[in-house]
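Inverse folding, one chain.
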């Protein structure tokens, strides 16, 4: 992550891990997010290349976003994301891998 981008995330007050699940296929995407808004109301739906903005818009009624963990800092959130992705490594439903 570039320093300027990293600094932008560090300034945010809310940091969380999330999982977006396609309720038809059970495929899912996990990620980390930093924001200033209420986490439960955050409309962000990830940065997946497979599930791009068009896909998300067209399938919004079958995509479910779950908040997995709320963390105290972006640094901790990034570490937790890496650990989560390691645990998903063998799961063919995880589209991150």
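Residues assigned per position:
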């Amino acid at each position: 992550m570039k320093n300027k981008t990293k600094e932008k995330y560090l300034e945010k007050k809310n940091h969380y891990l999330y999982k977006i699940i396609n309720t038809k296929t059970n495929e899912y995407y996990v990620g980390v997010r930093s924001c200033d808004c209420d986490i439960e109301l955050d409309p962000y739906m990830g940065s997946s290349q497979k599930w791009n903005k068009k896909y998300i818009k067209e399938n919004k009624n079958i995509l479910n976003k779950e908040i997995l963990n709320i963390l105290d800092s972006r640094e901790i959130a990034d570490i937790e994301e890496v650990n989560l992705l390691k645990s998903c490594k063998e799961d063919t439903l995880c589209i991150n891998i």
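The mean pLDDT is 91. Helices lie at 3-11, 53-58, 74-87.
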